[in-house]
């Protein structure tokens, strides 16, 4: 009998890639969606998915979702996931991200010993202000969040720990560092650069590319590696533990920009600072240590980030041509 996996946020960037991976593994894939969810990321496999309309902020709706899906695994990806937006809607970000997860945990609580294995999706943003002598960042590093989004993820992380300790639920916590690839929303920096370049190439915008802070350095991994890591943790991760998912390699945002500009078919693109893209505070460096997940479940990033960027740019070129 096939494993049943429930993916919240299945119509999103990571959710759609995880759904593809789970189907390839022979799983029966269920997903939550909202009535206004855009389905373009899953349209190519929609006939293979079981979708349930659900408001994750409503407990009765979540109970119905869990009862119908009857999952062996749950990966809770649905969230307000854009850091910049959290500065404008801090209360909504905290409410959405914390209440959605607590409703899911309450919905599976009656099953107790038979509860599904649950991935609580955290973020490297939880680490926040990291000092020079703390790099690369281990899971034991202090959490010093620097945005409302990061605070909401710390809440989800510690909630997962509390439900594991209090009720013995098989919850595995993750802190994924930056991940990119095709279907990434254009509000995120690498995807936004790629989209601007693709639209400049197709002539729908002038040859000016707008940027924010280019000094931040991030640990980037391909989304297709990240979802493979989530699946390995579902299979073999230790309940109650927290795992970094990262490449252990850093890129400055300006180097990402330079790489994409060098791939552009249009030369002499002007780069201009857009002050609206700057945040009240930004984490200067997030570089992770993946040794724990490598040691415990044998996962490591395989896809070179250069390939990720090429695939992302090609994704936006296709969309620009189709527009």
The residue fraction in helices comes out at: 40-55%
Which residue ranges are poorly predicted, with pLDDT under 50 across at least 5 consecutive positions? none
User: Total domains, how many?
Assistant: 2
Number of helices: 10
Radius of gyration: 19 Å
How many distinct beta strands?
A: 14
Summarize the structure in words.
By secondary structure, this protein is of the alpha/beta class. It folds into two domains: 4-179 and 220-245, NAD(P)-binding Rossmann-like Domain (Rossmann fold, 3-Layer(aba) Sandwich); 185-218 and 250-284 and 305-322, UDP-galactose 4-epimerase, domain 1. 41% of the residues lie in helices and 17% in strands. The chain has helices spanning 13-24, 59-69, 83-88, 90-108, 148-167, 189-201, 223-236, 253-263, 291-297, 305-322, and strands spanning 4-8, 28-33, 50-53, 73-76, 117-123, 171-176, 179-180, 208-211, 217-219, 221-222, 242-245, 250-252, 270-273, 285-286. The strands form four sheets. A seven-stranded parallel beta sheet has the order 3-2-1-4-5-6-11, sandwiched between helices. Strands 12-9-14 form a three-stranded mixed beta sheet. Helix 1 (13-24) crosses helix 7. The model has no long low-confidence stretch (mean pLDDT 94).
């Amino acid at each position: 009998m096939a494993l049943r996996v429930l993916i919240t946020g299945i119509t999103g960037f990571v959710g759609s890639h995880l759904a593809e991976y789970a189907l390839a593994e022979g799983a029966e894939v269920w997903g939550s969606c909202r009535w206004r969810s855009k389905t373009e990321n899953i349209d190519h496999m929609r006939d293979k998915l079981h979708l349930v309309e659900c408001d994750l902020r409503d407990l009765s709706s979540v109970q119905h979702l869990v009862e119908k899906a009857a999952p062996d695994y749950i990966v809770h990806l649905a969230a307000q996931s854009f850091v910049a937006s959290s500065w404008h809607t801090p209360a909504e970000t905290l409410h959405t991200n914390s209440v959605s997860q607590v409703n899911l945990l309450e919905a599976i609580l009656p099953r107790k010993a038979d509860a599904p294995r649950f991935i609580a999706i955290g973020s490297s943003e939880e680490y926040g202000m990291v000092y020079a002598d703390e790099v690369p960042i281990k899971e034991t590093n202090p959490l010093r969040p620097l945005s409302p989004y990061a605070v909401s993820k710390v809440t989800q992380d510690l909630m997962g720990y509390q439900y594991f300790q209090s009720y013995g639920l098989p919850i595995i916590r993750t802190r994924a560092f930056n991940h990119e690839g095709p279907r990434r929303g254009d509000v995120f920096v690498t995807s936004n650069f790629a989209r601007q370049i693709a639209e400049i190439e197709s002539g729908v915008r002038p040859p000016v590319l707008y940027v924010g802070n280019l000094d931040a350095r991030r640990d980037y991994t391909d989304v297709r590696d990240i979802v493979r890591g989530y699946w390995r943790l579902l299979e073999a991760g230790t309940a109650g533990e927290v795992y970094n998912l990262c490449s252990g390699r850093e890129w400055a945002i300006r180097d990402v920009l330079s790489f994409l500009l060098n791939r552009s078919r249009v030369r002499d693109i002007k780069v201009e600072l857009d002050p609206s893209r700057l945040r009240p505070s930004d984490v200067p460096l997030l570089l992770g240590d993946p040794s724990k997940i490598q040691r415990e479940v044998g996962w490591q990033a395989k896809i070179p980030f250069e390939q990720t960027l090429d695939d992302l740019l090609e994704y936006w070129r296709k969309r620009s041509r189709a527009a």
